[in-house]
Write a structure and sequence with these properties.
This protein is of the alpha+beta class. It folds into three domains: 2-96, no CATH class; 101-173 and 208-260, Sandwich (Immunoglobulin-like), CATH 2.60.40; 265-354, Roll (Membrane-bound Lytic Murein Transglycosylase D, Chain A). It is built from seven helices and 21 strands. A hairpin with a 6-residue loop joins strand 8 (124-130) and strand 9. The chain is globular.
């Protein structure tokens, strides 16, 4: 899944119209592309022309044919996005991809939720992504589509607070001016023209149009302490909605603690099932059922499900030993573990996701677990 948000800098003197963003590789930062490899591995384009052509965001699920190359370039730090604009179609912006530190928060109803609310079980799931250097932070909040777990109303604010209740991060709508920004869908729009200052006012990053609209917010070059405070075990992420904001007895509708992301899990979409996940990862329904508690085949969106066994690397553990024990090839391990930088040197204490081939798996005594 690719989530992309593009916004012109507020102090830019000439805001361009963004056309598309292409994913490229292999090349290190500042390095030119190798001859013959200047075509994007995949492209993400705006969903439609808008008056605010200087800013757009979208989330899309891709299944490119060259996935193996994409994962390898990401692992080795040789992947980047190039964004084309109307003034420089060949690419005006370039940003190198990196493997960040990932955190998550499953948000359930707050204890303040009044019994009078006609809400069954509101829920949300957030991913907090922090760059290795700690200077960039991204928060991606998703709301489920299940009728029984939708938020009662649109999101008005997302914020993080520490154990003492002090605010760490707050994401809320900004004012949206009513001046005219050129053309819309190729047609001129009449009205009051935008001043230079108004031209640099952008749409809110929090979408108020519906409870299911995702929230995606990035903080670049953040204060050195922001990442540390945001990912502290006592930090709570909360979501304020229209209803909770208007209720004097409430602070937010759902809340949840931020914890380190659990390896070998993914969020279920409306199209996912244990059968489809098993097929995608060369596993089987029984294996995935045994990995997940409760009723894992019940299709609830945004519920994290294990797709593989998380194997913690012990001292002396090697990739070859893992391959032999679980009946996996090196390519299969890398496909399930796209963040592995060097498969020949696995850090002690880290986790590797394994999908056993039960026909070749061997036990500690060297004997096959399953016999024909």
């Amino acid at each position: 899944m690719v989530t992309l948000q593009i916004t012109a800098a507020p102090d830019s003197s000439n805001i361009p119209t963004f056309l598309s963003a292409g994913f490229y590789g292999p090349a290190m930062p500042g390095e030119a592309m190798p001859p013959g490899s200047d075509s994007p591995l995949f492209t993400v384009s705006p969903p439609m022309p808008t008056m605010a052509s200087s800013t757009w965001s979208m989330t899309t699920k891709l299944r490119p044919q060259n996935l193996a190359n994409i994962l390898e370039y990401l692992r080795t730090g040789r992947a980047f996005f190039s964004v084309s604009t109307d003034r420089i179609p060949e690419g005006e912006l370039r940003g190198q991809m990196e493997v960040p530190m990932c955190y998550e928060a499953a948000m359930a109803p707050t204890s303040e939720l009044p019994a009078s609310w006609e809400v069954m079980n509101p829920y949300a799931f957030a991913n907090v992504i922090v760059s290795r250097g700690g200077g960039d932070v991204a928060v991606f909040l998703q709301m489920p589509t299940d009728n029984g777990r939708k938020l009662s109303s649109g999101v008005t604010k997302v914020f993080a607070r520490d154990g003492a209740g002090a605010s760490i991060l707050e994401i809320q709508p900004s004012a949206w001016d009513s001046c005219v920004r050129g053309t819309f869908d190729g047609r001129s729009v009449s009205g009051t023209a935008c001043s230079d200052e108004q031209r640099h006012t952008y749409k809110a990053e929090v979408n108020n149009e519906g409870a299911s609209a995702p929230v995606f917010h990035v903080v670049h070059h953040a204060d050195a302490s922001l990442a540390q405070r945001l990912t502290n075990s006592s930090t709570v992420l909360g979501v304020e909605t229209v209803n909770s904001r208007n209720d004097p007895g409430m602070t937010f509708e759902v809340e949840g603690g931020i914890t380190a992301a659990v390896p070998c899990r993914r969020l279920m979409t409306a199209a996912d099932s244990l059968y489809s996940m098993a097929k995608e990862y060369r596993s089987d329904w029984v294996t995935l059922w045994s990995l997940n508690v409760g009723n894992p085949d019940f299709r609830r969106t945004l519920v994290p499900r294990y797709f593989a066994h998380p194997l913690q690397i012990l001292r002396g553990e090697t990739s070859y030993a893992i391959q032999r024990r679980y009946g996996m090839s090196e390519g299969e391990i890398l496909k399930v573990n796209p963040a592995i930088r060097d498969i020949g040197s696995l850090p002690v204490g880290s986790h590797v996701c394994v999908v056993p081939n039960w026909q070749t798996v061997v036990a500690g005594n060297g004997q096959k677990v399953c016999s024909a």
